[in-house]
C-alpha cells in the first residue's frame, strides 16, 4: 500500500468518524435509518422462509447448476 493509499484510507476514517459524531444526537436521522432498515427486513424473512420451507433444496439446486458450468 502506497503512502497515498494510506492517506486516503485515513481520510475516509476521519470522514466516517465526523459523520457519526454529527449524527449521534440527531433523532430524526436515526428514525429515517430505522425506517429504511424495517423496509428491508420483510424481504430477508421471505428469503429465509422460502429456503427453510424447501429444506435446503434451493441451495442444492444452485450447487448442481454451478457444477454444470
UniProtKB/TrEMBL annotation:
InterPro entries: Tn3_Tnp_DDE_dom (IPR002513)
GO MF, one annotated term: transposase activity
Ranges where the Tn3 transposase DDE domain occurs: 4-61
Entry protein name: Mobile element protein
Source taxon at top rank: Bacteria
Species of origin: Deinococcus marmoris
Classification via Pfam families: DDE_Tnp_Tn3
BP GO terms, sorted: DNA transposition
Amino acid at each position: 500500500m502506497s503512502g497515498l493509499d494510506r492517506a486516503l484510507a485515513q481520510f475516509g476514517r476521519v470522514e466516517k468518524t465526523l459523520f457519526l459524531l454529527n449524527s449521534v444526537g440527531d433523532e430524526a436521522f436515526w428514525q429515517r435509518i430505522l425506517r429504511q432498515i424495517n423496509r428491508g427486513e420483510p424481504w430477508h424473512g421471505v428469503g429465509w422462509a422460502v429456503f427453510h420451507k424447501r429444506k435446503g433444496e434451493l441451495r442444492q439446486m444452485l450447487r448442481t447448476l454451478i457444477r454444470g458450468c
